[in-house]
Specification:
Layout (H helix, E strand, L loop, with lengths): L11 H4 L20 E2 L2 H13 L4 E6 L5 H11 L4 E6 L19 H11 L4 E3 L3 H4 L18 H4 L3 H16 L3 E5 L3 H13 L5 E5 L19 H7 L1 H14 L4 H15 L3 E9 L13 E9 L2 E8 L1
Helix pairs in contact: 7-8, 10-11
């Protein structure tokens, strides 16, 4: 993600001279696991100490079940701030009752070992649901604008849960920089809007989507795919690229998207929640083809839902 915080916030370029990125020899691997804190008080004490030592603070929010995509975000965060905090919290408020909260993969020990191996992470924040949402919690953030349509049409609860938990993480950690992956592109735009609208002094940095050799975007939910479903899943990015190329060549957007829908069905995807080409900044339907565009998709194979996006 690129820094995008409005006129009243310093850009990453402005921030960089204040903080020296950690110096690491090529191939360096951290042997000691980063400490884990589970309460806001412990977190704030650790962050205060880092700031007292003159260190800038970065945040990488995750729901655990970490893969190389997450780890690349941690390394990216360390390029901007020397004290990187990674949160591991499976946020219940962004799951609907019929979704996979109970079965979402969790392995904290493995996650911490992976974070240690990056040499980039200085602290893990792993609160319990009760610590994040104590008894009597009754406040939510309800984003609109870029949050409307696409994911919201199929998961109307989702971005309220995301915006609320991210706002809490921002107030708890008070980072200078927060890193999110482009893999969840609409979510990224929602977070940028949150920071702008609430005048938060946080630079949002985007990490590019990492992919398997066949182009499938890395995702924790890929673990749910059996061999047959995994083979079908690898077709998603291929069909999206073909659709994006058709649009980029000047063909009618609606017709290109319709052909893409048909190809996804033929490939074996049981449900296509959406395949859309949108304005990359506003996520509204394209009215000016001179502006940057983004193709976004959500599909289902059995009980597994996959999302992806890429530039047009």
């Amino acid at each position: 993600m690129g820094a995008e915080n409005g006129d009243c916030r310093r850009s990453l370029q402005d921030r960089k001279p204040r903080y020296a990125a950690p110096r690491q020899a090529p191939g360096y691997r951290m042997t000691a696991a980063p400490p884990i804190v589970r309460t806001v008080a412990e977190l704030r004490a650790a962050v205060a100490k880092a700031r007292g030592d003159g260190l800038g603070v970065g945040l990488v929010p995750t729901m655990g079940s970490l893969h190389e995509g997450h780890l690349s975000l941690c390394r990216l965060a360390a390029q901007h701030t020397p004290f990187v905090v990674v949160s591991i919290f499976v946020n219940p408020t962004q799951f609907a009752p019929h979704e996979d909260l109970a079965t979402y993969p969790r392995d904290e020990a493995a996650d911490v070992a992976k974070l240690a191996a990056t040499g980039a992470v200085k602290l893990v924040y792993a609160p319990t649901p009760a610590a994040m949402y104590p008894e009597g919690f009754a406040t939510s953030i309800m984003p609109k604008g870029v949050a409307e349509g696409l994911e919201t049409d199929f998961r109307p609860h989702f971005f309220a849960g995301v915006a609320t938990v991210v706002a809490k993480l921002f107030t708890q950690v008070a980072p200078d920089v927060a890193v999110f992956g482009e893999k969840d592109y609409q979510q990224l735009q929602v977070i940028k809007q949150l920071v702008r609208d609430l005048d938060l002094p946080i630079a949002i940095v985007a990490g590019e989507t990492l992919r398997e050799p066949d182009g499938l975007a890395l995702s924790s939910r890929n673990a749910y795919l059996d061999p047959r479903a995994r083979a079908i899943a690898g077709r998603l990015n291929v069909i999206m690229r073909s659709t994006a190329a058709s649009v980029a060549q000047g063909h009618d957007i609606g017709l290109s998207v319709k052909v893409g829908h048909d190809e996804l069905r033929k490939a074996g995807f049981e449900t296509v929640d959406y395949l859309e080409v949108r304005d990359a900044a506003t996520l509204k339907p394209v009215t000016d083809r001179s502006r940057k565009m983004r193709i976004l998709a959500a599909v289902r194979i059995g009980k597994t839902r996959l999302i992806d996006n890429m530039a047009v």
